[in-house]
User: Which sequence fits this backbone?
C-alpha cells in the first residue's frame, strides 16, 4: 500500500512538472525561443535548454526548426543524463529522417547514450568495480558503433567509435571474467571452465582472457584433471599477465 501511495505521488509530481514546464517557457515566436535555447545549450544550462526545446517541439512539430530541435534535444538529454528520453528521441528521429545528413552523428549519440546507461556516478566516485553489472547497454553501444563504421566508414565520428569499441570489448570481457570467477567461488567447476574458455574464444586479445586461464587452471585442479591442467599452465606461461 505504501508503494502504491509513493508511486501515485511520484506520478502526480511528474505530471505536475510536465504541465508546469509549458507555463515556464514564454509564448514567444519560434525564432526567439530557438535562439534562447541555443544560448542555454552553449552555456551548458541543459535543463533550461530542454524546457525550451521541448516547448518548440510540442508547439511547432512541423516548423522550420523541427529537425534541428530534435537533434539539439538528443544532445541536451545526453548531457543532462535523461537517457531514456534521449534514446526515445533518437529512435523517433531515425524513423522520421532515415536519410538525414547527420544520421551518422545520431548513430554515434545512440552509442554514447547506451554507454552512459552503463555508468553510475556513485561507482565512479568510490571507484567501485562494475565488471559484474548487466552488460546489455554495453552490447547495444557496441552494435551502434559497429553500425556507424559499417554504414559511414568515413564519418568524422568513425575514429572515436573505433576507440570506444575497444573499450567496450574490454568491458564485456571483464563481465565474462567476473562470471567465470563467480562460478569458481560457487565451486561450479565445469561452468567456470566453460565460461573461461568462451571468454578466450570471444575476446582472445584482452587481459581478461589471460586472467581467465588461472580460473580455468584452478577448476581443472579441483576436478583432478591433470592433463588439461598442465596444458593450461603452459598457456599461462605463454600468455603472462
Assistant:
Amino acid at each position: 500500500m505504501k508503494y502504491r501511495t509513493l508511486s501515485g505521488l511520484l506520478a502526480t509530481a511528474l505530471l505536475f512538472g510536465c504541465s508546469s514546464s509549458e507555463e515556464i517557457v514564454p509564448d514567444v515566436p519560434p525564432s526567439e525561443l530557438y535562439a534562447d535555447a541555443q544560448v542555454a545549450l552553449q552555456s551548458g544550462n541543459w535543463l533550461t535548454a530542454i524546457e525550451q526545446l521541448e516547448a518548440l517541439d510540442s508547439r511547432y512539430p512541423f516548423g522550420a526548426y523541427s529537425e534541428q530541435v530534435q537533434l539539439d534535444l538528443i544532445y541536451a538529454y545526453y548531457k543532462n543524463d535523461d537517457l531514456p528520453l534521449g534514446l526515445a528521441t533518437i529512435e523517433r528521429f531515425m524513423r522520421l529522417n532515415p536519410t538525414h545528413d547527420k544520421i551518422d552523428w545520431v548513430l554515434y549519440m545512440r552509442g554514447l547514450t547506451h554507454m552512459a546507461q552503463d555508468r553510475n556516478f556513485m561507482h565512479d566516485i568510490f571507484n567501485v568495480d562494475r565488471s559484474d553489472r548487466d552488460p546489455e547497454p554495453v552490447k547495444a553501444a557496441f552494435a551502434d558503433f559497429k553500425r556507424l563504421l559499417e554504414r559511414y566508414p568515413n564519418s568524422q565520428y568513425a575514429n572515436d567509435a573505433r576507440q570506444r569499441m575497444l573499450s567496450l570489448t574490454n568491458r564485456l570481457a571483464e563481465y565474462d571474467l567476473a562470471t567465470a570467477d563467480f562460478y569458481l567461488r560457487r565451486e561450479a567447476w565445469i561452468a567456470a571452465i566453460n565460461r573461461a574458455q568462451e571468454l578466450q574464444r570471444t575476446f582472445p586479445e584482452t587481459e581478461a582472457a589471460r586472467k581467465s586461464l588461472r580460473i580455468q587452471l584452478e577448476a581443472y585442479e579441483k576436478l583432478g584433471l591433470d592433463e588439461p591442467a598442465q596444458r593450461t599452465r603452459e598457456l599461462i606461461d605463454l600468455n603472462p599477465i
Summary: The domain at 12-89 is CATH 1.25.40.10 (Serine Threonine Protein Phosphatase 5, Tetratricopeptide repeat). Confidence is low (pLDDT under 50) at residues 1-22. Residues 141 and 154 are 19 Å apart (CA to CA). DSSP finds twelve helices and no strands in the chain.
